[in-house]
Amino acid sequence: MIDAIQLISIAILGSGLVYCFLLLGQNFSSNRLAVARESAELQHLNALTGELIERQRVKKEIEEGAWNGFRKFRVSKKQIEAKDQCSFYLTPHDGRPVPPFAPGQFLTFRLDIPDQKKPVIRCYSLSDCSRPDHYRVTIKRVPPPRDTDYPPGLSSNFFHDSIEEGQILDVRAPGGHFFLDTTRSTPVVLIGGGIGLTPVLSMVNHIVETGSKRETWFFYGVQNGEDHAMKEHLQKIDEEHENINICVVYSRPRDGEDVEGRDYKYKGRVGADLFREVLPSNNYDYYFCGPPPMMNSLFEGLREWDVPEDNIHYEAFGPATVSKKKDADKATEKAPTSVSDAAEKIVVNFAKAGKEVAWDPDVGSLLDLAEDNDISIDSGCRAGNCGTCETAIKSGDVDYLSDPGEMPDAGSCLACVAVPKGPITLDA
Ligand SMILES: Cc1cc2nc3c(=O)[nH]c(=O)nc-3n(C[C@H](O)[C@H](O)[C@H](O)COP(=O)(O)OP(=O)(O)OC[C@H]3O[C@@H](n4cnc5c(N)ncnc54)[C@H](O)[C@@H]3O)c2cc1C
To answer: How remote is the CA of residue 188 from the centroid of ligand 1, in Å?
Structure first.
């Protein structure tokens, strides 16, 4: 017979054992959780290390292939893509290999245009991904602004009217900081407005050519079918690649000619309102290039939709307000005493011109300040890459609105993206 004391002892022992088992179980599962967490962290670290190594490899490959100064390329093919848009295929004249580049980068051209006192320098984005034997750029003819007597765009019209197959052009190596991070496979939204298509076309072509399964949304905004470049190419990508969604948007489709669902997917404008409707979430990296109004509204719209600034990447062709404003804000944050607080006291001395001018941060860059005051500084890309505006600094120092593609020599600055840190004397 089991007496009461034995019964109580058994109960205590039993519950102790149960408690121990529970504790062991809990420990076991929390250990398993900790192990799982550690292995996930390890995997994440491995992936990050892999990305870093790959990024270094790609960077090295691009740097090794780059050439200094200008190299001669032959125009091997000229092809009309849409109204006033023409592609130029470029093959190295020396027969040596074509170095790779990052999708989104551009080439800088030096053109000898008749009746111009000096060579004209212009940048054009590479509109295809890296190919072993040629580069391709796509150029839009730029008309004069409405109701003015200004001459039409110098370089773009020269390309359209005077550059033919077989001609030789001087080209600098691919450059620029606006490119797709190809070491990652996170989802992306690529957006091109008008001729701003070119760098993002290079990006989507890269995704296609590498067989990447990266989720990709590609928005291309034009007025109507007349401006719609690369139509068949983009349709083919849409049909053949499940991970890539091509969304062509017409703002003013032509009656009776442009058919929704056949020629374009959406009527309206490319912007955050459309993304909210179409995209499953806001959780993407966004890359965009287009006319200034589109870029401004895209940037603001994405920020309002809580897209972190780090996920927004863009490039403006030429001096666009969005880049200047945002970058000027950045520079102000970086050096509050030198740029904004002390702005009234900063004097820029243009030594050769013999002019002293008060610095105004709203003007943009030192090049803009010089031009506003009829002081001549040669310029090309106006994006800190071609080096044409390199100007010696006699005294003082500068900050940069955006990082130059290549740092100028010590004691010089790239005036198109430079702002003064304090009183400064330039050799201009
Ligand atoms: C990084 C980068 C990438 C680019 N990629 C591409 C690309 O892929 N494709 C592309 O087509 N473009 C691209 N561009 C733009 C390109 O570099 C040129 O800016 C564009 O072709 C216009 O150059 P242009 O010489 O034809 O015109 P410009 O001669 O520079 O003239 C520009 C405008 O100013 C007007 N103008 C002329 N004289 C005056 C005056 N005195 N006062 C006021 N206005 C005047 C002209 O009529 C014209 O409307 C890119 C630019 C950059 C910075």
So the answer is: 29
Residue nearest atom 20 in ligand 1 by C-alpha distance: 156
Q: How far apart are CA 134 and CA 274, in angstroms?
A: 36
What is 115-148 written as a DSSP string? T-SS-EEEEEEB-S---SS-EEEEEEPPPPPTT-
Question: What is the CA(51)–ligand 1 centre distance, in A?
Answer: 36
For residue 373, which of 385, 382, 364 has the smallest C-alpha distance? 364
Is the CB of residue 365 below 6 angstroms from any atom belonging to ligand 1? no
Give yes or no for residue 140 CB within 6 A of ligand 1.
yes
Architecture per CATH, domain 70-175, reads as: Beta Barrel (2.40)
Q: Dihedral (C-alpha) 380, 381, 385, 391: value to the nearest 10 degrees?
A: 40
Going by alpha carbons, the residue nearest to atom 32 of ligand 1 is 153
CATH number of 188-317: 3.40.50.80
pLDDT in 10s for each residue of the chain, 428 residues: 445 556 555 555 565 555 655 555 666 566 777 777 788 787 777 777 777 777 777 777 677 778 888 999 999 999 999 999 999 999 999 999 999 999 999 999 999 999 998 889 899 999 999 999 999 999 999 999 999 999 999 999 999 999 999 999 999 999 888 999 999 999 999 999 999 999 999 999 999 999 999 999 999 999 999 999 999 999 999 999 999 999 999 999 999 999 999 999 999 999 999 999 999 999 999 999 998 889 999 999 999 999 999 999 998 886 422 333 344 444 333 333 333 444 457 999 999 999 999 999 889 899 999 999 999 898 877 878 777 899 999 999 999 988 786 788 899 999 999 999 999 999 99
**pTM for this entry:** 0.79
Please tell me the distance from the alpha carbon of residue 288 to that of residue 220, in angstroms, as a whole number. Answer: 10
Same fold, 188-317 and 332-426: no
Beta carbons within 10 angstroms of residue 130's beta carbon: 22
Q: Which CATH class is domain 332-426?
A: alpha beta
How far does the chain reach from its first CA to its final CA, in angstroms?
Answer: 111
Sequence ranges of the domains in the chain = 1-65, 70-175, 188-317, 332-426
Which residue's CA lies nearest to atom 15 of ligand 1?
Answer: 317
